[in-house]
Amino acid sequence: xxxxxxxxxLVPGAxxxxxxxxxxxxxMAKFDGRIVATDSSSLAAGFFLSSSxxxxxxxxxxxxxxxxxxxxxxKESVQxxxxxxxxxxxxxxxxxxxxxxxxxxxxxxDRDKLEICRDKMLTYSTLRGKFNLPxxxxxxxxxxxxxxxxxxxxxxxxxxxxxxxxxxDLRYVSSKYREMIxxxxxxxxxxxxxxxxxLDREPIVAVPRMRIQTKAGIxxxxxxxxxxxxxxxxxxxxxxxxxxxxxxxxxxxSKEDSFKLVEINPRMxxxxxxxxxxxxxxxxxxxxxxxxxxxxxxKINEITxxxxxxxxxxxxxxxxxxxxxxxxx
Length: 329
Hints:
Number of domains: 3
Number of helices: 11
CATH architecture of the largest domain: 2-Layer Sandwich
Order of helices and strands: EHEHEHEHHEHHEEEHEEEEHEEHHEEE
CATH class of the largest domain: Alpha Beta
Structural class: alpha+beta
Low-confidence stretches: none
Strand content: 25-35%
Helix content: 25-40%
């Protein structure tokens, strides 16, 4: 059911790039409602950018997390929840119906779809035979070509990826690490493709960006490009999985110059703001969807974006919770 006018948006993960850039994207779109930021850290940078903020318990304590969420939603009259944190999309999905009964539309995929994306082996088995995938196995003894890579089966953000150059590396990694998958090494250019699906799980736009430089899995330099084949394939992948709302799909060129899937993150990514700057502002489009508006896909420009750190001065008095100066009351 559409919300006539969204006046309050909840953006979780306000300490991370995805949450911060969701807030920035809403401001770029001149969203005139309230932006409520949440995070488990009292010094989340996104708190400084938002209308108000709340410190959340860690997600591992689900009971306390949900109790606090209900409190925040009630106090702030939240109407829409943006999926920007990889840690708490699971409880938001699990309690989506309860949130809807409170008047909150959580734009997040179903729990079983999130599990397909979280478990890289499940991702592979779900899409095998339908798309061009790299060789992938849980059994290190099946690795016969080098170089190869190993990475956590349940990891995220391209973290802890290990290069395997030969049999010695393979023996070492397989003896030291558990819950790893082993994959074909893809030597070509890496792309993140931001895909937005509507509330009926139908893909409506895909925007590829070349990952020129990354730090801790986050794009620091990138180039938004148009590539029809890549865009269409990633929209088909999102539809096959059953994504609701945004996702970012990582693809990489193989030695045969074909695109192969690396991973799927069922939320906005830390670099999705590149896509917003290029013309496709996902948070704004999500607001349009929630309000039941016809989605108009804007012109998307090919641009190169570089990022830099910025500083926020926080006042802190002894015995008083630290707050960004702009939010002092």
